[in-house]
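Q: For a teaching handout, I want to show students what a protein-ligand complex looks like in token form. Below are the inputs, and the small molecule is [4Cu:2S] cluster. Please produce the holo structure.
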Amino acid sequence: MGNIFDKLSKILIGTTVAATFLTASSGELSKIMKKRGLTETDIIHAAKTYTPTGGRDEFIVFSSGGQSGHMLVYGVPTMRILKYIAVFTPEPWQGYGYDDDTKKILAEGKIRGKQITWGDTHHPALSETNGKYDGKWLVINDKANPRIAVIDLNDFVTKQIVVNPVFKSEHGGSFFTPNSKHILEACQYAAPLDNNYHPIEEYKETYRGGVTVWSFDPKIGRIDANDSFTIELPPYMQDLSDSGKEASAGWGFTNSFNSEMYTGGIEVGMPPFEAGCSRNDTDYLHVYNWEKLYKLSKDPKNVKIINGHKVIPIEVAVKNDALFLVPEPKSPHGVDVSPDGEYIVVCGKLDTHASVYKWSKIKKLIDNHEYSGKDPYGIPILDMKKALHGQVELGLGPLHNQFGAKWKDGVIYTSLYVDSQVVKWDYKNLKVLDKINVHYNIGHLCGMEGKSEDPQGKYIIALNKLAIDRFDPVGPLHPQNHQLIDISGKKMDMLVDMPIPLGEPHQAVAIRASKLHPEVRYKMGTNPFTGNSHPGKTLAGQEHIERKGNHVYVYGTVVRSHINPERVTVNKGDTVTFYLTNLERAEDETHGFTVDDYNVHASLEPGKTVSLTFKADNEGVFPYYCTEFCSALHLEMMGYLMVKDPNKKYVSAQKLKMKSMSKEQLKAEYDKTVAVNSATDAVIQSVVKFLKANHYEKYPVVKNLVEDALDQYSKIKEQKEKSDEAVKAGDYEKAVLFENMIWQYMVKTADVGIRAKDLLVRKVATPQSPAAQAGERAFGEGGCSGCHVIGKVSSGPDLTGVLQRHENGEQWVKDFIMNPASKYKEPYVKGMIDYFNLRMPNQHMKEQEVKDIIEYLKWVDKNANLF
Ligand code: CUK
Ligand code: CUA
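A: Here is the structure, written as tokens, with [4Cu:2S] cluster included.
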């Protein structure tokens, strides 16, 4: 094992102090390594990725969720999944597709009137300012049902879905331009741009591809379909694309794989598509000046209107020197533009090479009108050799590229699908630098901010298509496998695997975590989908039910732990709309809402208002309830929807004779409840005193909790008034109920208040030495905490001050822990045994643990005033 501790300490702390510390615990570590069969390298990989509880990641990855139509969010280097974002597919937890507003978003994705509830998501893109990620917006495409969705990174929620009006399939999207004013989206399978039938025999004449240039407003994060247009392209099956940067800003680049314009036909005796599409030695890289074409699209004489959408015909683009073709090795796949916009790297897929084009060379050919020919549609073709910087043989099946932090020195990483490898190479000096094996068949690879003008290096994630034997078997359908690779050294280092059981994530994008600033609560009564106040916004005290003809509107609120109103009665056949506002301001106090049997569900994050509409077409009694375990009284957070048939006569059930309590009994119960409340209140007051004395307001996290607690506490006054009123009227039964409500508010106050106090103790206490920390751990894990609670007498005595209680206290405590029985006869211990009716057991602690516990107890004594 030799120098593993040196290596580890370098990773962990980078000092020799750490090495000493590690050597001390090395016995334990080597035992675990042996038991689990771990090598030194494994331990180093663990140290590079493991993040202790509460720790955060350096990068956040947004990965396509493939056929799930969702996206997923995870952290690097921990590879912990943080969220699924619902995009094209309903997602019950978030209420996506189960409340009115999210149904509306999903309905934006209807294609020619048809609701589509899935998506084949491929390429996410993050918004950019001056070519750098700004952490504001995320977009992703749907290949099967050509659509693009916009996700708001303020709350990680999909806010817009836009259908491509002319494509029947799309793939080369989405790609933001460097200032996020536009998004490029390229077609995949060519088809007629109109919606009519055209025979396949007229493929060349009537089938088309294209690139749609969507206008995007980065201020509000919405696509403006009216300001957008499509560049008509030949039916070459456009593929991956990238938008130009810096030197090539304003231009776009799109690959293709069927310049043969083959149309298949196995059933009529023709060879399959796969043969016909790869007959020619070269296909075409489309090079187009989208910026110029955007300006031209404003003039109606430059566009055809197809399905209500502007399309610039090929001739118009050619006439204006805005569309060119450059031959590229047959059926390539990825195309990626270098951060300075000068190099365009095309991956061979069927060719073992990557082809590096130079923008200045392409531009020169364009400016000099130096063409080697024209394609059948009249598009000028540039000479491949004259446009190339060079080619490098990388291996079998090169698919996609990512630039590293040293991109200026030519460092780039490319995935090799067939070889199942990532290759690091130099696109400037055209040589291979390093290769690493992945498991198995990698598609995209994701660098940290690797698609921006500011690649961060550090890590590459291999997005592998097959997992085969990597994980515990879960049936014939295997998870996908994302592998994290450390690229900070000279050689690439494979760190960890993460199974993805959601769909095939083609591409992922990563951003520095520090650039994301999502909010933790909505402004009270917000509709997140408009950003405005929701028409159904209801504040405390405004709850009511309104009937308009056959439509019943419930203006309700939810807050720990009740839904107001709790009873809603409607007629069978009525339409019912629940408007619900979550009145909570506390972080993470989300409530859920459903009505049994009616297929509706909402997620109510703090401050949000949602609306749920359904037809009450079944008679009966339907509980509604909160679906998030939001508080101790979560199960009580419920109500009843009662649906009556107005045409039925209901015979009332015979009233049961219930025994009722005497007035004296009720008064006694009332007195008891009041006494419990004032005792609880005394506890609360002592916590409040502590919080104030220790200046809780100086610590924002504590302050938030205290505010939430006081919020709960402030509601007591109104309940007390109601209770007093009931007493005055002699109605003790009602008074008891109100006193119980007071107690509920007190419990909620105490719950949050004590959480605040615990946090505050940690903030104001003197820092713990490593030994005291280890001692606290041993105290918890060794069983001491089973009977002893610091600051309190529980099933054993309070240990605050225990070191002072005995002569030569430290030694005494040590001896007692190591061998309790030796002291059972001492009068003090005997007294304790009698009092608690328990004997201190021997926990068989190690000497070091006992020493640490004593350090911990010293720390407790130093901070005794806090407990
Ligand atoms: S594509 Cu899947 S591996 Cu849709 Cu970006 Cu290349
Ligand atoms: Cu609110 Cu459970």
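A: Two things your students might notice: The chain has 19 helices and 42 strands. The first helix runs from residue 4 to 12.
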